[in-house]
Queue: 2 jobs
Job 1
Amino acid sequence: MAIALVTGAAGFLGARLSSELTRRGHSVLGVDNLTSGSLENWQAFGESDRADLIIANIERELPHVEGVELIFHFASPASPRDCAMHPLETMRANAIGLDCCCRFALAHGARVVYASTSDVYGSPAEHPQRENYWGNVNPLGPRACYDESKRYGEALLSSYCRAYGLDGRIVRIFNTYGPGMRDDDGRMIPTFIMASLRGEPIPIFGGGAQTRSLCYVDDLVRGIVDFALLERPWHRVMNLGNDEERSVLDIARLVSALVGSDLHTAEFPLPQDEPVQRRPDLSRARMMIDWQPATPLRQGLAQTIAWYREKRCVAV
Ligand SMILES: NC(=O)c1ccc[n+]([C@@H]2O[C@H](COP(=O)([O-])OP(=O)(O)OC[C@H]3O[C@@H](n4cnc5c(N)ncnc54)[C@H](O)[C@@H]3O)[C@@H](O)[C@H]2O)c1
C-alpha cells in the first residue's frame, strides 16, 4: 500500500480523493493552506486514521516525509469566483506549486498526478473534446489565470517527464459536483441548489442554452485513483467527467423539480469567454482504465440536495 501526498486536501475534490485512497488501504498526507478549502470539509470527508492534514502553502517546500510514492497535485483555487478573487495565487499554485511537487517527486522516486481541467480546451471549436484537441483559450481574458496556468502546468509536467523521466500524469477534469462543495463558491450546482432551497430565482447567464456535462464526485475520484495506480498507461493525459450533456436551463429545471419548488430564473449576460458547450470524449478512459461514470444526474443531484439540506441549510 502506498503513501500518497495530496495537495489541496481540504478542498472539495482533495478531501474526497483522500477518502477514496484510504478506503483502498493507502495512507494520505494532505497539505492545504485553506484558501478555498476548510477544516470542516476535511473532517467531514477526508480525515481518517490513515490520513493526516498539514496546513501549509505548497508554493514553498513540501513537508519532509519519507516513503511517498504518489503525489496528487490538486491545490489551486478552482471556481471562477475564487480564481477572480485570487488570480495570482491561482497562477502560482499551478506553476510554482506544481514545480515543487515535481522536484519532490524526482527526489523521492514518486509519481505525480496533476489535476488539470476541461478549461484547457477553452471555448472549444471541436465537440466533444478529445485529449488531442489543443483548445481555444484567450490568454488575456478574465479566465486566463486559471485556463492558462493549467496549460502551463501541463507543459511543465510534460517537460519534467521528457527531461528527467518523471512518471507524471494529467487528469483533465470536467465539471464535477456533489456533497462538500462550498455553498458560496459560485459554481453552478451549489448556486442552483441554494437559490432553489431559499426560494430565490436561479441565475441563468446567456439564456441557458449553453451545455455542461456534470460528473458526480464519487465517480470522478474512482477514476482518478484507477488512473494513478495504473502501472503502464499508454497515454499521459486523460479526460474524466460525464459525457451526458445537458443545457444549463435543463439542469436548473431538474434542480428546482428535485427541491420541490417552481422554476424562477433571473437572466444575466454570458460572462466573457464562457464556453458555450462542454462534453468529454471518454474513449481513452474507457480503454485505459475501463472506467465510466455510474451515477445518473438525477440521483447525484438528489444526494447533493439532501446533503445541503442536512448539513448546510437546516434553517432554510
Ligand atoms: N471541481 C471541479 O469540477 C474541477 C474541474 C476541473 C479541475 N478541477 C481541479 O481540481 C482541483 C481541486 O478543485 P476543487 O474543486 O476541489 O477546488 P477547491 O477550491 O474546493 O479545492 C482547492 C484546494 O486547494 C487549496 N489550495 C489552494 N492554493 C493552495 C496553496 N498555495 N497551498 C496549499 N493549498 C492550496 C485550497 O485551500 C482548497 O482546499 C483544482 O486544481 C481544480 O483546478 C476541479
Job 2
Amino acid sequence: MTPEPATARRASGDGDTVQADASVLLELYRRMATIRRAEERLSQLFADGAVPGFLHLSIGQEAVPVGVCAALEPADTVASTHRGHGHALAKGMALEGFFAEIMGRASGVCAGRGGSIHVADMSIGMLGANGIVGGGLPLAAGSALAHQVKGRPNVAVAFFGDGAMAEGALHECLNLARLWKLPLVFVCENNGWGEFSPLERQFAAKLAALGAAFAIPYEEVDGIDVEAVAAAAQRRIEPARRGEGPQILECFTQRWRGHYEGDPQKYRDPSNLDAARGQDALAVAAGRLAAQGIGAAQLARLERSIAEHIETAVTAARAAAEPDFETALAGVYAGGRAHG
Ligand SMILES: Cc1ncc(C[n+]2csc(CCOP(=O)(O)OP(=O)(O)O)c2C)c(N)n1
Ligand SMILES: [Mg+2]
C-alpha cells in the first residue's frame, strides 16, 4: 500500500471520532479494502498451493492497523504478530513486495526468506511479523529505546493479540517501558480468541488492570470503527511522542476466519461466527461515506482499482524467480557470508 500523508492524523477533532471529511475516510476505506482484498486473494493462492507455510488472515480486523497507522509518522516503527499482513500494508508496504514475499519469491521484501509470518521491511518501519506470541513486544520496546537514545521524535507501536496478555514478555515490557518512559504504544487487538480457545479460558484479569498495575495510561476503543481507532490512536500516540511514556490502547475486534487458513473452526459456535461477521469495518465506513455523498458507484470504482493492483502484484510475483539456494545463508550470520 503506497504510504500517503497520515490524513487521519491531520484531521481535526479530539472527540471520540475524528471529524474527518469524506476524503480522509475514503482513504481509510481504501487502505482497509486493500488489506481485505489482498488477504482474500492470498486465501485463494494458498488453496492453490502458491503460498508456502502457514497463513493467518486478519480479515475482520482491518480497522485496527489502518486506524493506528494513520496516526503514525513514516519514521515511527511497528512490531507485529503472526497475523501481520494488515500491519505491513497499513504501514506502507507495497503490494508487489508483499505478495512476492508471501509467495516465496526473491523479489519479496525479505528476498523470499521470511514469508507470511516474518514479513518485514525496515525501510518503512515495519519491524516484522512474528511467530512467537508476544515476540514483537520486546522488539518494539527496543525500537522505542532506540528512538529515545538517539533523540528521535518517533514512537514505536507493539501490536499484540489478546493471547499475549498472559505472556511474561508483555508484563516485562510494560514494566520496563514505564520505568524508562519509553515512547511505546501497546496496541492490543482483542479478537476474543487465542488459537482455539476463548480469551476467558486463557487470562483471568483485564488489560486495563495491567495498565493500572504498571501505572500506564489505558484506553479502549471499538476496533470495528476505523475513525474511532484513528482518534484513540492519536490520543495515545501524542503523549508517547511528547516524552510522557508508554500508553495502552485495547481495540475490540473480530476474527472472521479460522486461526489459520484451513482451520475448520469446529470449536466455534456458528452464532459466534455470525456475530463476528455482522461487525464489518468496511460496511461501517461505507455507510458513513454514503451519508457524506460517496456512494456505491465510487466505492465500486475504488474496488476495481484495488483488484487490478493486486492482480498486477500477483502476476509479477508468479513470474519472479525463487530465492537462489546458493545465497540461502546470506543474512543469517553477521557479515552476510553466503555459505556456511
Ligand atoms: C510463545 C508462544 N506460545 C504459543 C504459541 C502458539 N500460538 C500461536 S498463535 C497463538 C494464539 C495467539 O492468539 P492471539 O495473541 O490472541 O492472536 P490472534 O491469533 O487472535 O490474532 C498461540 C497460542 C506461540 N506461537 N508462541
Ligand atoms: Mg486473539
